[in-house]
Amino acid sequence: MNKSDKPLSTLWGCELSEANKEKTFSADETNLQHQLAIRTMCIGHTAKDEFNIIELVTETGEKAAEAIPVATLHPKFMPTVNLTGIELPPPVTFRLKFGSGPVHICAEHVAIEEDSSEDDLEEEEEDEDVELEEECEESPEKPVKKTAAKNGGPVKRKKPEKALDSTVSDDENNPPKKGKGRGRKAQA
Predict the structure, then answer these.
(1) Mean per-residue pLDDT for 53-58?
(2) What is the per-residue pLDDT for 121?
(3) How many helices (H) and strands (E) does the chain have?
(4) HSE-CB of 181 using CA atoms within 13 angstroms
(5) pLDDT of residue 169
(6) What is the pLDDT of residues 117-171, one digit of tens each?
(7) How far apart are CA 80 and CA 47, in angstroms?
């Protein structure tokens, strides 16, 4: 749903009984997108001690209408059923397949009104895209930094070499170091 779409929601309900076994929800307006969101079905307080089977008939495009049982209600065992999550486009027909009712159906009719400025928004988005492309073309390319290492890893720096004094040797100035890695000197 776009920001420009405005949902309109109203309650819709009907009663199925022995006298009225079928009820159809349909929408007339063509400039709105309609859906029927089924909420609950419950059996009336005057119902007989019998099962009541409610079926749903939907027509989808080229296919013929299909009847699907969606609830089986009984006054003692299952007086109410929650059907939240079933959302169907019109026309939707409810039929009392078995039983004498009364069965009450509660649903929510949702209509989405498309704003006429939707085309204007699309044109604005296209203009913004063109402006972004022009900005990208105008910006200069950044120079690529080259690394000295062949594998692209960090560059290793060489340690400065120590100046060797030819008159003084290391052995004479420095006493022998103790610790690992240094062996004993042979005494002369």
Answers:
(1) 90
(2) 53
(3) 2, 8
(4) 1
(5) 54
(6) 555 555 556 666 656 666 656 656 666 665 555 555 566 666 666 555 555 555 5
(7) 13
Burial of 82 (0-12, 13-18, 19+ CB in 10 A): exposed
Q: How far apart are the first and last CA of the chain?
A: 95
The encoded tokens of residue 43 equal 């059996």
pLDDT band at 42 (very low <50, low <70, confident <90, very high): very high
pTM of the model: 0.56
In terms of Cβ atoms closer than 10 Å to its own Cβ (0-12, 13-18, 19+), residue 39 is middle
Nearest to 53 by CA among 37, 66, 68, 38: 68
Closest-CA residue to 8 (of 96, 112, 119, 162):
112
* CA dist 70 → 9, 83, 93, 142 (Å): 23, 9, 12, 65
Q: What per-residue string of b and e applies to 42-66 under the rule 16 or more CB within 10 Å gives b? A: bbbeebeeeebebbbebeeeeeeee
